[in-house]
Specification:
Number of strands: 0
Low-confidence stretches: 424-433
Strand content: under 5%
Helix content: 55-70%
Radius of gyration: 23 Å
Largest sheet: none
Structural class: mainly alpha
Shape: globular
Length: 468
């Protein structure tokens, strides 16, 4: 079940909000949220909920041990064991089959006969949202070890871990950032109204923009490399718009849902396509993921406080793992390596050259690099990516041949204008008052009826980040 489905909008959400309104005390509201979140997960994942529950209690167990044992060495042992358990679960479901199959392919090329083994390999079913709730568990344990987590009850943690707004596709929320809100669920009608606005905004971004430009990207990336230069760039720009409005729309919905419950999530997108460098881009794009890797991997590796060579190594390690976090594919690994390499480049004398350019040129450079990166991200394999780049550089001709819908192209142009030139309207943190833009709220309510009409027709409506 997705947030922008008619089932969620007209059945699940109204019933939950009504029950939440009737509940008075935080403990009852949290119990309701836990039960509702498990039902939400079962609806989309079925028996996979057992893994979610088991992992929640494993993290709770390791967390209690870290809190209770007096010996610092034992605390560290519990932390390492907890992190290892989380990563082992993630590795088994997401990477084991891929790693094993790559070794078999390597042995085949070395002359060993593995033809009887490869067809019989069967990867385990990937539980919905596993990459997100594993990272939630790891951040909880590390913050607990570093004494960044205040006093809490087991039900507070379970409410955080199971909370359906961030359960299956993020953002990656840290326990300490929402602990106080979970413990003191107060009625804040200003926050609730602001949450309704953010939720509606997210629906419109997803349904009216992301879903409308998606067919352009699909047509181009399934063209088997037979695109002209013009069509290839239109397709790449379409995916650039699609993934931004798809995921930022989902984040808006998640932030809005949490606000309706009295819980404040931090922003996940800060107008990333207005960046002047890749370094700035990663401060604005998927902020919860980039800061997670920064705080729990980059800084522990030494960050930029070491020699240049080690700093470059740290960046490559972080972004290769960031790429693989999105999936067990060479294209994701190359995408991460590409961004890591650009960040290294921007730490050389190239940064001075970049800063000397007009701001428009800086933004052009950044967007071109981001678009190139999305080609790797969207491609099924490296062969498709290579063919697509050939088309983008004009090896199959220049003039466009593919016929795209007029409405799709119009929405693509509108999406680019919004992403590239509109100001960041929601750059609030969890510590700031959430203010409502009334005129924009009214405009989005009008567009909501159009979105609901589109959804009513049963139009294609998956979220990209449900795959990760």
């Amino acid at each position: 079940m997705v947030f922008s489905s008619t089932t969620f909008l007209f059945c699940f959400l109204p019933i939950f909000l009504a029950a939440d309104l009737i509940s008075n005390k935080s403990v009852f509201r949290n119990a309701l949220l836990i039960c509702t979140s498990l039902l939400f997960y079962v609806w989309g994942e079925g028996t996979g909920v057992l893994l979610l529950v088991i992992l929640a209690f494993i993290n709770l167990l390791f967390g209690s041990k870290i809190s209770q044992v007096a010996s610092q060495k034992l605390k560290k042992v519990c932390l390492i064991a907890g992190i290892f358990t989380n990563l082992a679960v993630l590795f088994y479901f997401k990477y084991l089959f891929w790693v094993f199959s790559q070794f078999l392919l390597l042995f085949e090329r070395m002359g060993f006969n593995c033809s009887d083994i490869l067809p019989n390999l069967d990867s385990p079913h990937l539980p919905l949202g596993i990459s997100f709730f594993v990272f939630h568990g790891i951040s909880y344990l590390i913050d607990l070890y570093n004494k960044k987590v205040g006093t809490y009850r087991a039900t507070d943690f379970l409410t955080y871990f199971f909370m359906f707004p961030h359960l299956v596709a993020g953002p990656i929320v840290r326990f300490e950032s929402v602990r106080e809100d979970i413990q003191n669920r107060k009625r804040d009608w200003d926050l609730f109204t602001w949450g309704v606005f953010r939720f509606i905004l997210g629906i419109n971004k997803k349904v009216l923009i992301a879903n409308t430009v998606a067919p352009i990207a699909d047509i181009c990336f399934y063209s088997n490399g037979q695109l002209t230069l013009t069509d290839a760039w239109i397709g790449a720009l379409a995916y650039t718009v699609q993934i931004y409005f798809d995921f930022s729309g989902y984040s808006d919905m998640a932030i809005g849902l949490a606000a309706m419950m009295g819980i404040r999530f931090q922003e996940n997108f800060l107008a990333p396509y207005r960046s002047h460098s890749i370094k700035e881009f990663w401060r604005r794009w998927h902020v919860s993921l980039s800061t997670w890797f920064r705080d729990y991997l980059y800084f522990p590796l030494g960050g930029s406080r070491c020699s240049k060579i080690l700093t470059y190594r740290n960046l490559l390690v972080v972004f290769v793992l960031c790429g693989l976090w999105h999936g067990a594919q060479w294209t994701f690994l190359i995408w991460g390596l590409f961004h890591g390499s650009l960040l290294i480049l921007e730490r050389t004398s190239f940064s001075k050259f970049l800063e000397s350019l007009p701001q428009l040129a800086q933004r052009f450079y950044c967007m071109i690099m981001v678009v190139f990166g999305w080609v790797f991200f969207r491609a099924i394999d490296l062969s498709q990516a290579a063919n697509y780049f050939q088309s983008m550089f004009g090896f199959n001709g220049v003039a466009g041949q593919t016929v795209f819908g007029t409405l799709n192209l119009f929405v693509l142009a509108v999406g680019l204008l919004i992403a590239l030139f509109s100001k960041q309207l929601f750059n609030n943190t969890a510590d700031e008052v959430k203010s409502l833009n009334v005129p924009l709220f009214g405009i989005n309510v009008v567009f909501l009826f159009l979105s609901l009409g589109v959804l009513y027709t049963g139009a294609r409506n998956p979220f990209i980040y449900f795959n990760f």
